[in-house]
């Protein structure tokens, strides 16, 4: 963690602790106010109660909408709604954009239609497009009716593209100029703006038909000869996107080329919007969170304080699969029950073989899923990658299997047991490497997300496989 990340985390944690303390004080005073046996102090307590709410509200007013979103996600439902009621109404829209989908649902359910309309009306067309799928349809219609023709057209355009595409994320606020004007004219034009659109690092150069011809960076504009024409100083080699492009691939391009903004063009080359780095950072974060959840077998991001039934719906499917695989592993052990009774050391050692296999398989599968997601691995290259992973697993198996085999020999005084331990660990690591490559590649070929449940599957196979290999070898060579 960098120094900046640590400072940000510490600041968020400090704000959360302060809000939680104010909420605790609020609940304490509220309890005292409602006691029937203290009528003489009721007025004083009521004043303290109101003052506490004012203090909490003032604290929230000092926070950025993203920080408030963080706090809301960390609070139980009743405390979350208390804080939500105290937030300034003009910040509602921004906060709804920042919170997770699960928390956003609880906040929207607590709001009246007119409150939702007021919150949505504070957002730009591209931001409203992000929020619209979660809003009641009537609210969306009412908000669209209040927009001017240009904003309504922009919103309809953004909503027409599928979620996860560039078109659904593009921003319509941008600055464009013609190529046949001087830099001095451009500077005078920029001074007419009260404020430039956020993340304006470049100006888009278009022709009379609004076809993109190039870009002029603000830095280049400031140091260029004022009499030079834009066509002489603009850059024509531009990274562009189409609205149908995948947002994740666009985010990777932003990371690769250190972009702040990039133009979005249609098939005719006409400039229709732009992508900004803040949207791409959100895409990268959401994709990272999604991969972590999918590897664990979770369907979606979960509200920490969601009702029990909601959490059950999110988790039950892969837990059911895990139960079946665990039962299979237990049956494998049952087949070798006689061997375990004959040599009790097997019961103590077999979890080591299974555990190491599971860890190794998760390392491989995480690397493969990441490579597939970034487009660095094609299915045709799986064979070459498997051979490489096979070499790594054999070396690790011989080295670390030899170490644990020596420990088994020293603990139980049996050299053959040490050899069996070494061989079993090596074979299970080979199995883990094979499945670590095979599972995500086959899921990708079948059109499924290779991250969904991969960790659960690899652990299941290496557990059952590890038990079978170790107990099988023990039955053959030690009985």
UniProtKB/TrEMBL annotation:
Positions of transmembrane segments: 316-336, 343-361, 393-412, 418-443, 455-478
PANTHER family: MAGNESIUM TRANSPORTER MGTE
Subcellular location, principal: membrane
NCBIfam families: mgtE (TIGR00400)
Keyword DNA-binding: no
Family: Belongs to the SLC41A transporter family.
Entries under InterPro entries matching the protein: CBS_dom, CBS_dom_sf, Mg_transptr_MgtE_intracell_dom, MgtE_N_sf, MgtE_transporter, SLC41_membr_dom, SLC41_membr_dom_sf
Subcellular location: Cell membrane; Membrane
Cellular component terms (Gene Ontology): plasma membrane
GO molecular function: magnesium ion transmembrane transporter activity; metal ion binding
Membrane disposition: Multi-pass membrane protein
Function according to Swiss-Prot or TrEMBL: Acts as a magnesium transporter.
Protein name: Magnesium transporter MgtE
Domain CBS residue range list: 234-290
Subunit structure, interactors included: Homodimer.
CDD domains hit by this protein: CBS_pair_Mg_transporter (cd04606)
PROSITE patterns reported for this sequence: CBS (PS51371)
The UniProt record lists the keyword Membrane: yes
Keywords from the UniProt entry: CBS domain, Cell membrane, Magnesium, Membrane, Metal-binding, Transmembrane, Transmembrane helix, Transport
């Amino acid at each position: 963690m960098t120094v900046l990340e640590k400072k940000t985390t510490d600041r968020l944690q400090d704000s959360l602790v302060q809000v939680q303390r104010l909420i605790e004080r609020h609940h304490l005073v509220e309890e005292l106010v409602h006691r029937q046996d203290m009528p003489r102090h009721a007025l004083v307590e009521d004043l303290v109660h109101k003052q506490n709410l004012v203090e909490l509200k003032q604290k929230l007013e000092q926070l950025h909408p993203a920080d408030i979103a963080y706090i809301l996600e960390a609070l139980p439902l009743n405390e979350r709604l208390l804080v939500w009621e105290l937030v300034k109404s003009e910040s509602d829209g921004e906060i709804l954009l920042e919170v997770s989908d699960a928390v956003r649902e609880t906040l929207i359910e607590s709001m009246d239609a007119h409150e939702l309309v007021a919150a949505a009306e504070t957002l730009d067309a591209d931001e409203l497009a992000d929020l619209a799928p979660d809003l009641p349809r009537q609210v969306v219609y009412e908000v669209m009716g209040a927009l001017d023709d240009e904003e309504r057209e922009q919103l309809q355009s953004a909503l027409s593209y599928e979620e996860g595409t560039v078109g659904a994320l593009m921003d319509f606020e941008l600055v464009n100029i013609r190529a046949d004007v001087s830099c001095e004219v451009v500077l005078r034009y920029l001074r007419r703006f009260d404020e430039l659109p956020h993340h304006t690092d470049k100006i888009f150069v278009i022709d009379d038909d609004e076809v993109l011809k190039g870009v002029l960076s603000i830095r280049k504009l400031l140091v260029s000869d004022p009499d030079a024409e834009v066509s002489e100083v603009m850059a024509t080699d531009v990274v562009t996107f189409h609205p149908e492009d995948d947002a994740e691939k666009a985010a990777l391009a932003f990371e690769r080329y250190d972009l702040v903004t990039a133009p979005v063009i249609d098939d005719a080359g006409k400039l229709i919007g732009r992508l900004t780095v803040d949207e791409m950072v959100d895409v990268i974060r959401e994709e990272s969170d999604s991969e972590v959840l999918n590897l664990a077998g979770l369907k979606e991001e979960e509200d920490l304080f969601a009702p029990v039934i909601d959490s059950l719906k999110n988790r039950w499917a892969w837990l059911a699969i895990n139960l079946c695989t665990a039962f299979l592993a237990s049956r494998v052990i049952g087949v070798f029950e006689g061997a375990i009774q004959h040599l009790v050391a097997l019961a103590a050692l077999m979890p080591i073989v299974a555990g190491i296999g599971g860890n190794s398989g998760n390392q491989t599968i995480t690397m493969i899923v990441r490579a597939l997601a970034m487009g660095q691995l094609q299915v045709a290259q799986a064979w070459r990658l498997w051979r490489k992973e096979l070499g790594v697993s054999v070396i690790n198996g011989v080295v670390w299997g030899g170490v644990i085999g020596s420990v088994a020999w020293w603990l139980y005084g049996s050299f053959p047991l040490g050899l069996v331990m070494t061989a079993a660990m090596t074979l299970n690591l080979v199995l883990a490497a094979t499945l670590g490559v095979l599972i995500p590649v086959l899921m990708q070929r079948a059109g499924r997300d290779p991250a969904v449940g991969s960790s659960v599957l690899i652990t299941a196979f290496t557990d059952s496989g590890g038990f079978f290999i170790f107990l099988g070898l023990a039955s053959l060579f030690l009985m």
